[in-house]
Design a protein that fits this description.
four-stranded mixed sheet; 252 residues; five-stranded parallel sheet; single chain; elongated; binds guanosine-5'-monophosphate; Rossmann fold; alpha/beta
């Protein structure tokens, strides 16, 4: 495994891997990562994007002010409230939610294009968005909830990040404690005590989910082939029977 670099969260994601073309005929997987702020999800997202050429990141739109370390259209597309509402009302968002008093949403078109092309898509969204994706395409979604090892650790990480003011940190911590209740809605739950270990577990989950879907597809293909053979045999039999009957009728 490539060793994850020490924490450099919120830096523009460096493109170290060339995106690989997706396999034709394959429908992509929606891989969702959620966690309370400060549990290390942003770092894990970046590591996964650097490590795996077969996954594309869904870049959300948000009305939250841009942080100093963030780049527009890389971390988020930063919009004003009016433009966000316009997108939402025009059905341009696959899911959306209000989080910490700001609006966040996933633009629909890039996700649908990627899935159709057979690529997997990584989502860094909250539980509200995850439930909306379940309602739309549960079979295409694999979800992971990242837990901090302790609340003290979460508080320390939020403070260390120091990109939000004191009031925002307090607000995020209070919300984080509420968000923890949603772990049960996820397919997998990981505790991010050790970043390397958590990252390795995340990659294992992604690999297993890809295999499960490949197996489904293989079974579906086999079933389609079997049905086609059965159809062909039926047609041949009907033709033979038709010929036989015509012969019999000709003999009358
Ligand atoms: P932050 O402001 O720290 O970047 O994100 C706050 C929360 O909003 C995080 O839990 C993040 O996962 C969530 N979030 C980011 N983008 C989206 C989105 O497009 N939809 C939803 N539902 N949540 C999002």
């Amino acid at each position: 495994m490539k060793r994850p670099r020490k924490k450099t969260a919120r830096k523009p994601a460096r493109k170290v891997t060339r995106r690989r073309k997706a396999a034709p005929g394959r429908r992509g997987l929606m891989f969702v990562l959620s966690s309370p702020s400060g549990a290390g999800k942003t770092t894990l997202t970046r590591l996964l994007m650097e490590d795996d050429p077969r996954i594309r990141l869904s870049v959300s739109v948000t009305t939250r002010p841009r942080r100093a370390s963030e780049v527009d259209s890389v971390h988020y597309r930063f919009l004003d409230r009016q433009r966000f509402e316009q997108m939402r009302d025009n059905g341009e968002l696959l899911e959306w939610a209000e989080v910490h008093g700001n609006f966040y949403g996933t633009p629909r078109a890039p996700v649908e294009a990627a899935l159709k092309a057979g690529a997997d898509v990584l989502f860094d969204i909250d539980w509200q968005g995850t439930l909306q994706l379940y309602r739309k395409a549960r079979a295409d979604v694999a979800s992971v909830f990242i837990l901090p090892p302790s609340i003290a650790d979460l508080r320390a990480r939020l403070k260390r990040r120091a990109e939000d003011d004191e009031a925002a940190v307090r607000h995020r911590l209070a919300n984080a404690i509420l968000e923890l209740n949603h772990w049960k809605e996820y397919d997998f739950v990981l505790v991010n005590e050790d970043l390397n270990r958590c990252f390795a577990q995340l990659k294992t989950i992604l690999a297993a989910e890809r295999l499960a879907r490949q197996r489904d597809r293989a079974l579906r293909e086999r079933e389609k082939r079997t049905l086609a053979i059965a159809d062909e045999l039926r047609r041949q039999r009907q033709t033979r029977l038709g010929e036989l009957i015509r012969k019999l009728q000709a003999e009358v």
